[in-house]
Design a protein that fits this description.
With 236 residues, this protein is an alpha/beta fold. The chain contains seven helices and eleven strands. The chain has two domains: 125 residues, ATPase, nucleotide binding domain (Nucleotidyltransferase, domain 5, 2-Layer Sandwich); 81 residues, Nucleotidyltransferase, domain 5 (2-Layer Sandwich). Strands 6, 7, 8, 9, 10 and 11 form a six-stranded mixed β-sheet that branches. Helix 1 crosses helix 2.
Length: 236
């Protein structure tokens, strides 16, 4: 089974192709939220350099969130377009699960965190291959209470690592920050997670069913809602 995966839910963007659970091509850049310019050229390069014909891809996978609203939309839209054009299935992976994946054999609780602004983080925790909670947006003090109950120490990963580590390092024993070069969700992890879960029998979806996961209303929508509420108030 060949899976092509995209990941651009944060400041990094990546593409990977795996065949039967082994990576045969990948690329990763961290140059800010310029995914609309970098993603498709990167995809074409990875497909070419791996000797893969795009029509031979069996499943298109991506992170569906949480994360940058714009980045998530770009990745989901790209996969939807490819899958629709080639009549292939899709598979969605949590960006938090992808960020935690490299540390699943660490023997520690792995807490993936992404900065959600306003003293909030998107977060999910894992122990080995076990998911300990669903993806959610919570305040950092709430996260502290959970991490105090974690077993065998905690590894923080994700783009919110430094934010949370600086806030909680003096309050949680055994709290460690992941390596800066290995704390972002990567398409390599996305492709392997997708492969493992599909092989366990989890269903794929068609392109119309692949949707972004938003744990909060996007800022643009919040501003629109605020404006509409103000208009409504003025008419009362």
């Amino acid at each position: 089974m060949r899976i092509l995966a995209l990941e651009c839910s944060s400041v990094s963007a990546s593409v990977a192709v795996c065949e039967d659970g082994k990576i045969i091509g990948s690329d990763f850049v961290r140059n800010g939220l310029t995914h609309s310019q970098t993603l498709m050229p990167m995809l074409e390069r990875v497909v070419r350099d791996s000797g893969t014909d795009i029509s031979s891809i069996d499943v298109f996978a991506c992170t569906s969130g949480p994360g940058s609203f714009t980045g998530v939309r770009i990745g989901v839209a790209a996969v939807k377009g490819l899958a629709d054009a080639l009549a292939k299935p899709c598979f969605a992976v949590s960006s938090l699960e992808a960020a935690a994946f490299p540390y699943r054999d660490s023997g520690k609780t792995v807490c993936a965190v992404m900065d959600a602004r306003c003293n909030q983080v998107y977060t999910a925790s894992f122990y080995g291959s076990e998911r300990l909670c669903e993806d959610e947006a919570i305040l950092i003090p709430e996260l502290k209470e959970r991490l105090l109950r974690a077993k065998n120490g905690v590894i923080l990963t994700g783009d919110g690592t430094q934010l949370v580590y600086n806030a909680l390092k003096d309050e949680i024993a055994g709290l460690t920050a992941s390596d800066e070069n290995c704390r972002y969700a990567d398409a390599k992890s996305v492709s392997i997670i997708a492969y493992e879960r599909i092989m366990r029998g989890e269903p794929t979806v068609n392109s119309a069913e692949l949707l972004p996961l938003y744990l909060r209303v996007p800022q643009a929508q919040r501003e629109l809602n605020k404006k509409n509420n103000l208009k409504g108030d003025s008419n009362i």
